[in-house]
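An instance as discussed:

___
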Amino acid sequence: MTTTPDAAPALRRFGRTAQEVPVIGQGTWQMERDARATCIEALRAGLDLGLTHLDTAELYGDGRVETLVGEAIAGRRDAVFLVSKVKPNNAGRFGAIEACERSLKRLGTDRLDCYLLHWRGPVPLAETLEAFERLETAGKIRSWGVSNFDVADLEEAERLVGPGRIACNQVLYHPEDRAIEVGVLPWCEARGIAVVGYSPFGSRGGFPASDSPRGRALDAVATKHGVSARQVVLAWVSRTPALLAIPKASRPEHVRDNARALRLALDADDLAALERAFPLR
């Protein structure tokens, strides 16, 4: 495997925060559908392997996933960069604060490292950001960000709170959906905002089949480095300084596969081959 020079897990500063997080984290979407004990085992295995950026949301399983995450991190909270998200309907001036308190209780912690608005909804953005600022002042959250924001949304948020306040934008990003590269990614890069890619393996099980042209391109790079195709995708999704990825893995063997991508470095030939296979449209 081609590794980073010091063979250490790749860390990256999380937006405006002073905290560094691994470029590959752990997502938890739909974990309520999986075997609870296995999910907890997987999350703990991920923490042991350096996947300490752990993302969840009150939406997931109507809070059940936050409770699961709380159990997984019990006794090791200080080693985790913990992120959760508020539902748009709960994101009012007072509602967001109440929602955050409920999330903290389910997670078994007194603070979040970052708190996100899950997507734009009916509540005025000014109310949500006012609540986020109050939560940060109170020490309930260490930073805040947004999710599924386009450039217009981001510009509105920056007008409301000024520059340097948004820590991250969490967005859909995988080789077959590169839409954020047109506007969102450069906008965030110019302002030091972390871009966290969810569903890095594709939406709704859409990972390229091995016998497809795109699948063969991934397999060729994987074979060159002695890794899996999914590790190649994770290295690609986190290939620039602004980018992070949060793949979901509800089984320990999948977590171990994801974690190996922390040390994978794609070279210029790899990136060129993947660019030909997955061109920006």
